[in-house]
Amino acid sequence: MTSRHHLPAGRARRGPHLVDVSPESAGWAHSSLRVLELPPGGTHTFGTGDSEWIVLPLAGGCTVGCADEFGRDTFALTGRESVFTGVSDFAYVPRDARVTIGSAGGGRFALTGARCTRRLPARHGPAASVPVELRGGGSCSRQVNNFGAAGVFECDRLIAVEVLTPGGNWSSFPPHKHDEHRPGEESVLEEIYYFEFAAHDGTPGLGYQRVFPSGHGRQGTDVLAEVRDGDVVLIPDGWHGPSMAVPGHTMYYLNVMAGPEAERAWLISDHPDHAWIRATWPDQPVDPRLPLYSAPAASPEPSSPSAPSSP
């Protein structure tokens, strides 16, 4: 087993970031993740460079200011108490821009990134628009917050989702991969897993992550890791799964994906030894602990009967 693809909390810390995974540090070409912690009243400014980014509150709220040659946008993100208490709104910022994140109350914020070619407009993603999906059945039940999924929110290359797995359950199962270019069947995507766990009576949680070689890709990735709060697992290739949450502790992970494909799509292949498990899910109830929460209802648009119609 190698450990270079498992980064325990603190190993990927750089400057103001609790986690800073770049294409250069990961040894690949596309996907990035930063986790920024701000004190009350704190700010952080960065250039987006050749990448697009989604700013996602993990704990707390913030403002996101984005400036480039086309103008300036500012978004107020309500955020949330923690990843275990609710869906968060988020902000998309494009490449070649200057971004400032500020938080009056302080908090922790994920910056999910991908190298890209197209410049899309800066936008606010409301929490009410995030599809909350219940996936699997029985002990394979988990919740997926598809805030940055392909087909849900437009990006050039970036795909990002959140997964919540109740204690004792398995997710990322059956093991699957996305390291071959097979049009319509499988896409090539580098992937980052970032973990947090719900504590119980002050006792921190933990889980386990498996990645094993597929015979494709370049690195023959092989990981069997005990993962805890703030840990990261890098998946350049290989079968990945299961992600196992120990009993009594809900597991959260943030997935960040990007790759060289012309089509932005999450196309996967299940491991042939375990693909059959999907056929058992319709006969099993979804874990009654799910959903942990749902997206909030959309706020009604203010009426303005005297306003002219849009062209």
How would you describe the overall organization of this protein?
It is a single chain. This protein is an all-beta fold and about 300 residues long. The protein has one domain (about 5-280): Sandwich (Jelly Rolls). The protein is about 0% helix and about 45% strand. The strands form four sheets. Strands 2, 3, 4, 5, 6, 7, 8, 9 and 10 form a nine-stranded antiparallel β-sheet that branches. Strand 5 (about 50-70) and strand 6 form a beta hairpin. It is globular. Mean pLDDT is about 95; it is low at about 300-310. This is 5-deoxy-glucuronate isomerase. Keywords: Isomerase. One of its GO terms (molecular function) is 5-deoxy-D-glucuronate isomerase activity.
DSSP strand (E) fraction?
Answer: 35-45%
Q: Mean pLDDT across all residues, rounded? A: 94
Query: How much helix, percentage-wise, in residues?
Result: under 10%
Under CATH, the homologous superfamily reads Jelly Rolls
Category by helix and strand content: mainly beta
Distance between the termini: 60 Å
What would you call the shape? globular
The level 1 CATH classification is Mainly Beta
Structure annotation, total helices: 1
Under CATH, the topology can be stated as Jelly Rolls
Enumerate the spans where pLDDT stays under 50 for 5 or more consecutive residues.
302-311
How does CATH name the architecture?
Answer: Sandwich
Provide tags for this entry.
single chain; 311 residues; mainly beta; Jelly Rolls; seven-stranded antiparallel β-sheet; 1 helix; 43% strand; disordered C terminus
